[in-house]
Amino acid sequence: MPSRDDEKTFSDICLSRRTATRSRLTSVTPSVLARYRQYLRAKGVPSTLDPQRFDPEVREALISNYDQLSSGRSFAGIRAELLSLARAGRCPMCDGGPVATLDHYLPKSVFPEFSVMPKNLVPVCYRCNNIKQDVIEESGRRFLHSYFEDPPIEALLDAEVSVEESVTITFRASYSGEAPSVAANYCFQFERLRLADYFQLESVAELCDRSLAMQDYFGDDGDSSAVREYLEREAASVASLHGVNHWKAALFSAASKSTAFCNGGFLQLLHA
Ligand SMILES: [Zn+2]
Question: What residue segments make up the domains of the chain, in order of their start?
Fold first, then answer.
């Protein structure tokens, strides 16, 4: 969660603009700040905020405030500061991609007044930012807001590892219960960001990286139990560090449950 003074940030950026733009922005500053307080009380839940109409010139000025955060511009330090908030530099939406950009949780095309509000700017990877686009919510389900919501604690992500001609990994996320809920939002995010595809690709690379370790456990005697126990330990370790819904926890758990994989199926990865 950004700790900087949000209202001062907004005002400082507005005051740095050229005279005509600055006067357009200062005319709406009280109403923008009031709306932002509403945003904070609602923890960014969009359904509580109706889009506000602005004159086209004011709207343009609000949106272009965000340009002041670009590299080389006066407020680039804010961008760097927000990017540094990501845990271990990893995207909170896909639990994998390196953080590279700021996502407007509520898009600036719909909510231009929040274009530079720190708690609306979430560090994410390029892939998630590109796919998310300007979607806000659908049927009461929306993206998780990593500043205001903890990830779900119940296990929602499941993987399956099968061994035939090659090793195949599939992911699915499901929940029982109704929207709105953190679980429903998690599954919405999983679907919208096509995380099944992303996790599948990352999983192949992850298992390839582990294949020599698995081969050591397997040994010349073909000790499948040692491979299974290794994968179970890895699954427990990831779950304890990153939560039960981290894709690596689901992956290792699924691999440990596949008899064919533990019984030498993983060797296919060495020749892939
Ligand atoms: Zn991502």
Answer: 6-137, 157-270
